[in-house]
């Protein structure tokens, strides 16, 4: 009877997981970034259970309370202070995590799906399909993305779904260009010629053979794009063009605190700004590590 001792296997999932884990442990910055991302993901998931106050409950009598502000009994009421309307800043910060992560992951998924689909078809078939896809990409790249997003949001109106769609459609060009270039390189290889000789359908070749072999660089790009989408969402929310005003977001918190920066109420912009900074930095560090880990040339050097 064949042994099920995975530790004695020289290949397979155990070896891949071991290599992945050891590489992560060696890179302290990547490990710390992953821990931070796991923390904020759990904060977003369990936001309703851990918020100390209603994020939209106003209390004008306790407006712009400083961090560690206490009530009349001496108990800490606002851990990181309150805003200009007396709303708990920590509660709003926690709920803002949900918006940033949902927009980041959803927009990248939409942009990645569209871009990979178009890129693989353009690279595999070439000719007029390639021309149409690439010209559409050139047209979109001719416009500054943030201005294009503002234009669409003004026309479509505010809302989480509209924001995700606008940011998602804005990301497809990057994936399409990479998928197209990688597909052109892969379709000339012998395993593709063998699959065609065996009568394998084009769809199976594109998404069953080519896609798994070009997925690594696309994953790396996705990790970087999540960071850029979170920044774009914060910028649009800062301008009042993201989600409705009653929905707490990190960008909206910065916008609401801009009049208090010179009034020495540092905590109002500091905490949402740090949340954006640390989250974007974490995704970028993870992207750098994934790029190094998935690059076979670097593995050969090691």
Structural overview:
The protein has about 300 residues and is mostly helical. The chain has a single domain (about 30-300), classed as MetI-like fold. It is built from 13 helices and two strands. The chain has helices at about 15-25, 30-45, 45-50, 90-125, 125-140, 145-155, 160-170, 170-185, 190-195, 200-240, 250-255, 265-295, 295-300, and strands spanning about 70, 75-80. Strands 1-2 form a two-stranded antiparallel sheet. A hairpin with a 5-residue loop joins β1 and β2 (about 75-80).
CATH class: Mainly Alpha
- Contiguous uncertain segments of 5+ residues: 1-10
* CATH level-4 homologous superfamily: MetI-like
* Number of DSSP strand runs: 2
Domain unit count: 1
Largest sheet: 2 strands, antiparallel
Give the termini distance in whole angstroms: 37 Å
List the helices and strands and how they pair.
Elements: H1 13-26, H2 28-45, H3 47-50, E1 69-70, E2 76-78, H4 89-125, H5 127-141, H6 145-156, H7 160-169, H8 172-186, H9 190-197, H10 202-238, H11 250-257, H12 267-294, H13 296-301
Antiparallel strand pairs: 1-2
Helix pairs in contact: 2-4, 2-12, 4-5, 4-7, 4-8, 4-10, 5-8, 6-7, 8-10, 10-11, 10-12, 11-12
Question: How would you summarize this macromolecular structure in one to three sentences?
Answer:
It contains 13 helices and two strands; from the N terminus they run H-H-H-E-E-H-H-H-H-H-H-H-H-H-H.
Feature tags:
disordered N terminus; elongated; 302 residues; two-stranded antiparallel ribbon; mainly alpha; 70% helix; 2 strands; MetI-like fold
């Amino acid at each position: 009877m064949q042994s099920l001792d995975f530790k004695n296997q020289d290949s397979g999932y155990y070896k891949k997981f071991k290599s992945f884990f050891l590489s992560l442990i060696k890179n302290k910055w990547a490990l710390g970034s992953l821990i931070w991302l796991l923390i904020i993901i759990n904060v977003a998931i369990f936001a309703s259970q851990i918020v100390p106050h209603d994020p939209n409950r106003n209390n004008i009598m306790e407006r712009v309370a400083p961090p560690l502000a206490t009530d009349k009994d001496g108990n800490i009421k606002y851990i990181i202070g309150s805003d200009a309307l007396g709303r708990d800043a920590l509660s709003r910060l926690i709920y803002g995590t949900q918006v940033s992560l949902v927009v980041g992951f959803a927009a990248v998924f939409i942009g990645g799906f569209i871009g990979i689909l178009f890129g693989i078809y353009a690279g595999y078939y070439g000719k007029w399909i390639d021309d149409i896809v690439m010209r559409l990409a050139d047209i979109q790249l001719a416009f500054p993305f943030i201005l294009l997003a503002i234009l669409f949001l003004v026309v479509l109106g505010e809302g989480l779904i509209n924001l995700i769609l606008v940011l998602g459609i804005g990301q497809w060009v990057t994936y399409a260009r990479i998928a197209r270039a990688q597909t052109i390189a892969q379709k000339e290889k012998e395993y593709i010629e063998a699959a065609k000789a065996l009568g394998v359908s084009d769809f199976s070749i594109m998404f069953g053979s080519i896609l798994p072999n070009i997925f690594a660089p696309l994953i790396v790009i996705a990790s970087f794009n999540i960071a850029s989408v979170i920044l774009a969402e914060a910028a649009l929310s800062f301008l009042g063009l993201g989600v409705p005003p009653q929905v707490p977001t990190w960008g909206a918190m910065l916008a609401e605190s801009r009049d208090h920066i010179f009034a020495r109420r540092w905590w109002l912009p500091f905490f949402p700004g740090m949340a954006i900074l640390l989250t974007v930095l974490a995704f970028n560090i993870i992207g750098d590590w994934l790029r190094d880990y998935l690059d076979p040339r670097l593995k050969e050097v090691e």
